[in-house]
Write a structure and sequence with these properties.
Layout lengths: L7 H7 L1 H8 L5 H12 L7 E5 L6 E5 L8 H15 L8 E7 L5 H6 L1 H21 L6 E2 L1 E9 L5 E10 L1 E4 L5 E3 L8 H21 L15 H12 L5 E7 L2 H11 L10 E5 L2 E8 L5 E8 H9 L10 E5 L6 H12 L37 E6 L22
Antiparallel strand pairs: 1-2, 1-14, 3-6, 3-9, 4-7, 5-6, 5-13, 7-8, 10-11, 11-12
Amino acid sequence: MIRPQPEVAEVIRSCYDEFLERHGKGLTPEQRRTIDDLARCRTAALGGHVLECPQCGHRQISYNSCGNRHCPKCQATASARWLEAQAADLLPVPYFHVVFTLPSDLGPIALHNPRRVYGLLMQAAAETLIELAADPKHLGAKIGVLMTLHTWGQKLDLHPHVHCVVTGGGLSLDESHWVAGSDRFFLPERVLGRVFRGKFLAGLHTAFRRGKLRFPGKLAALADPRRFNHLLSQTVRTNWVVYAKPPWGGPATVLKYLARYTHKTAISNRRLLSLDDDQVTFRWKDYAQGHQWRIMTLDAIEFVRRFLMHVLPSGFVRIRHYGILANCHRREKLKRCRELLGAIPTTDSDLLDSNSPPEREVPVTPTQVCPICGAGRMIVIEEIPPMTMALAPLAQPDRCFTCDSS
């Protein structure tokens, strides 16, 4: 008998009690909410609907989903809604894909100060792109940037980086004409890396000086200004990785990219291969060896621990718009861009708020075709109320579950 492919929610349910016993006191409220939401996603705990086929009488139960933004299954629906809105804002110009990566030496600081450090990472990357593009020595134009934060690597390790979709050209500084960029080259990567490094380290040093950074457990030594400054001076001597990929042909290709990256979670369900004897086996792509797929097996508790490392603070906006795409003036600037490019928008629908939390989803719709007779359309005949489940109380953290330190 072939076992069905496991899902992240199933892995969480398989070790839920043991994980909380071992790591529960170190979870943040957001991490605890995520593990609880995924454990209940599309189960009787969240309620649902009874559907029936009027043709053959077949009935089936459809349970509600959790809507958590870290849930691999729920984000597929959120992505589809968001993409439909973004299509109206794409211009008929080439787009570049630029990736800014934080050095591994700064990863532990980011892990314990996610709101501050990840916000600084996105801000520094955006300012770097906008300032260099506006420089007449480079492009001399106002560009648009759509940015999404990823904190993970292929093996669920910590790897903070931002993916940027950047217009290949922009409004002239006086907004009188459109400045077309090169079809093959955006901005020099080494210059991008140096400017990004300077902006980020300056911001991090300011946060330290103002007492805005935490250094718990094994990081306690960095609270000493000399140790902290020494770490920063070490990172200055390294090249920060900024990668500008070749441009895309146009909006259709950009949408395919956005579908892959914007609402991505730390790991997708389709990468999981098996869950046996509390061991999770999954695929990961080895970018250092020609993008080859490899196999990795982790203890279920360790898998969940790594997964929860990438849960963002409540309210943190991980998809942001900058430059001519900034929310405060996006419609005005895009209208001017289209006038200069002689382009007509594909739709006049308003943008969805990509920063708002997704609504709770029902995984099937009343128009689903009956899986038995194939002729009838399933209709909702009964609502199933959520079950009341007793969850373990959330204790105040006294140890960091990511590094097992006080």
